[in-house]
Fold these 2 entries.
Entry 1:
Amino acid sequence: MIYKLNDKVATREAFGAAILKFGGKFKNVIVLDADLASSLKTQKFAQIYPERYLNFGIAESNMVTAAAGMAIRGKVPFACSFAIFATGRAWEFIRNAVCYPNLNVKIVGSHAGVLTGEDGATHQALEDIAIMRAIPNMKVICPADANEAYLAVEEIIKDFGPTYLRLGRASLPVIYDSSHKFKIGYADILTFGEDICIFATGPLVHSCLEAAKKLKERDIHTTVVNISTIKPLDEKLVIDCAKKCKIIVTAEDHQITGGLGSAVMEVLSENYPKQVHRIGMEKFGESGKPEDLYKKYGLDAEGVYSRLSEWLTN
Amino acid sequence: MSDPKELHKKATQLRIECLKSIHKAQSGHTGGSMSAMDILVTLYYGDLGGDPIMKYNPQKPDWEDQDYFILSKGHAAPALYAILADIGYFEKSELDYLRQVNALLQGHPVIKTPGVTMTTGSLGQGFAAAHGLALSLKMDHKKNIVFTMLGDGELQEGIVWETAMSAAQFKSENFIAFIDNNEIQLDGFTRSIMNVEPIIDKFASFGWRTIPVKNGHDFNELLTAVEKALIPSRKPTVIVCNTIKGKGVAFAERNPSYHGVALSKEEMQVAIPALEKELT
C-alpha cells in the first residue's frame, strides 16, 4: 500500500510505481510502449531496466503481436498504450496472436472512459471492456483506485494468461487503506444495505460510495460492490447480493452495452432473473474537464444519487 | 542434406504427401503450399558444410539452443505439416485428418501442434510474432535464429511494415524472413490487385539486408542465399524468393484458381504420377 486514504492519485500513476517495483523483482517481466511512456508512467522502468524495455513507436498492433512472440519463451510482456488503441487498434491481434494461443501477455490500457477528459471522444475508450471480455482466455481487470491498481499489477504478474488492465488518466481519491487484499476473480463488498445493491467498477466505485452516503442520510441502505475483476466475474457474490437487495444497479465509465452492466445481467438472467438498472455511457464522449464530463453524463456522485432516487420512487 | 538432387527428391516426396492430405480434406491451399515447399525443405533439411541450417530436435521441443520457424503465411500449413510429420514431430497418419473435426492439424497452424512455434494464419501476425520471439532471444543474449516466411500478398498488410521498421530499429540480426514471391493472391495476380513490388527496394529502404533469389525452386541458389543470410550483420535479413504458385503440379502452376482449393480425384490422377516419375 503506498498511497494515503483520500489522496488524489491516478491508477496509471500506481501502475508506473508497481511495474517499477514488481517488474523489477520478476525478471521475466518486459515493458513495451507505443510512444506513450510518459502517459503510462513507465519511464522509470525504462531507465532502470533498459534491457527489458522496448518502445515500438506508434504501432500498437506490432507491439501486441511482438509481445505474443516474446511470451512463447516465457517472458511476461506488458504492452502499454491508451485503452482505445491497445484494445481497439490491436484487437484482432489480441484475439488471434495472444488469446487463441493463450500466451501470457498483459495488455495495459490507460485513459479509459470519459474520465480521460480534454482529449475528447477519439481518446476515450468506452467499448474496451466489451471487446476484451468477448475473447476466450482473456481476463479483464479495472481497479477502483490507485492502491488497488498497485496490488493488481503484482497479482497479474504472478497469474498466468492474457489479461487486460484498464486504467484511468485523472487523479481520483484513494478509497482503500492498507487492509485491502486484491485477488483476481473476487469482488469486494464495500458497504452493505438491503435497499439497493450497486455493482460498480473503476472510478464509478467512488461515485457510488459517495451516493450511498447521501442515501444513508435518508435511511436508505446501499450495498456497494467493487467489481475490479470484470472477467472472470465473481458470479457467486453477484447472485448472493442480488438475492439480498431490492434494487440492482450497475455503474461504469463505459458503454452500458457489453460492459460490466451486461456481464452482471448475463449472470443474473441465467441464475436469478431480476431487473437490473445500468449507469454508464450510451453515446460517444466529448472534450471537457473530467469532473464536468462526469457531471454532464451523470457519472459523479450527484448523478448516481439522482438515478438511484428515481429508481427508489418508481 | 546439401546435395540439390537429394533436396529436390525430398521436396517431391513431400509435395505428394501434402497434395494427398489436402485432397483427403477436400479443402486447403494447394498453390501456396507448392510454391513454399522448396524453401521449407531447404530450411528443415538443408545443411551448410555439415551444419544444419536450422537447429531443431523433435525429441527435445524445449531445447534451449534450437532455432525457430514461424510460418507467417499460415495457409501453407499443409506443406509445413508434411515436413513436421516426416521429421517426427507427430505421426504421419495425422496428415489424413487435416482440417477434420477433433483433428490435430488445423486449417492454419496452432501452437499446440508439435513442431509449430506459433499460431498463425491471420496475415502479418506471424511476422510480428516471430520478430517478438527474436527480440526475446536477443534480450537473453542467445544466438538462436528465428526464421519466418511470408507470402507476397501478405506484404499488403500494414503490420508487416510496422514490424519491418521495428526490426531495423532494434537491429534484430537474429531474424531472417523469406518471401515466397509467387505473384498470386486469392483474387488474382498480386500486381493487378495491389502491387507490392519492388519488394527488395522496400525492405532495403526500411533498413534490412536483402538477398534476392531469382529461382526459389533452385536448391543451389537457396542454399547460397541462406549461407549469406547467416553471416552476422547488424540488420534483419529478408530473402526474397521468386517462386511459382502451384509449383510441381503442371496444370496448377501460375494459375490463380488453385490458390485455395484441393485437387479433384481426376486431377490427382494426373498430378501424383507426374511427381512420382521425378522420384525414380
Entry 2:
Amino acid sequence: MSMKPNVSQAKYQSYLSGRQPTKPWFANAVRAFLTGGTVCLIGQGVQETFVHLFHFSEKTAGNPTVAVMIFIATLLTGFGVYDVFGQWAGAGSAVPVTGFANSITSAALEHKSEGYVMGVGTNMFRVAGPVIVFGVVAAFFVGLVRYLVVS
Amino acid sequence: MSGIGIFIAAFVVGGLICVVGQLLMDLTKMTPGHVMTVLVVAGAVLDGLGLYDPLIKFAGAGATIPITSFGNALVHGAMAETSQYGLLGLITGIFEVTSAGISAAILFGFLASLVFRPRG
C-alpha cells in the first residue's frame, strides 16, 4: 500500500484543516508553566526539609525528595485527584517525576480487574516503560562517548 | 543559590521545562509518553555535554523534579562506575542513582493497586 495520500484524501485533509479546533497552545503553555513550576516549588520545599531538618546534604537529599514526591503522587492518583489535576495542568502534571509515578499507578489501577500478575504486573509500565528503555539506551551511549573521550 | 532565590529558580526552571513538554504535545503530534521519552533522552544528552549539573546547581528541584533529571541521573550512575570498573561500569552503574525513584514508583504503585479501586 502506498502511504502517499490520494486525491480524495488530500481533498479531505484540506476540508478538515479549516474546521478542526485549533489547540489553545498558549493557554496550555501558561498552565503547564504554573502547575509544573508549583510541583517543582513543592519539591524544593521537601528537599529543604530534608537538608535542614534531617541533615542531608544538597546532593543526598535528591533521592529521598524524589521518593516523597512519588509517594504523594501515588496517593493523589489513588484518590483520583491527580487525574483531575492532570486534565487542567497538561504537561505540568506529566513532565515532573510525579507524572511518572501517576502513569505507573493509574495503569496498575486500571488493569487491576485483570488480576495482579497479568493485569497490574503487565501493564504497570505501559507509559513508564518506554521512558526507562530510551533513558537507559541514551545513557549508555552518552556514557560510552564520554568514557571514550575522557580516556 | 540559597534562601528565597532557589525557590524562585526552581519554580521558573521547572515551569519552563514543562512548557517545552506542553509545546511538544500541542505543536507536534506527540503523546505524553513520547514527550516524556524525548525529555529523558534530552536530559541524558545535556548531562553528556556537562550542562545539566550547572542547571541543578542553579535551580535545585526545578531541575531534579522534571523527568529530564532521570536521564541525567542514569548517565551519572553509569559515569561514576566507569571510573572504578571501566566499560563494564556503564552497565552496572546505570541504575545506581535512579534506583530510589524506580523502586519507590514500583512499590507504591503496586501497594496502591492493592488498596485503591480504579475510578472513572
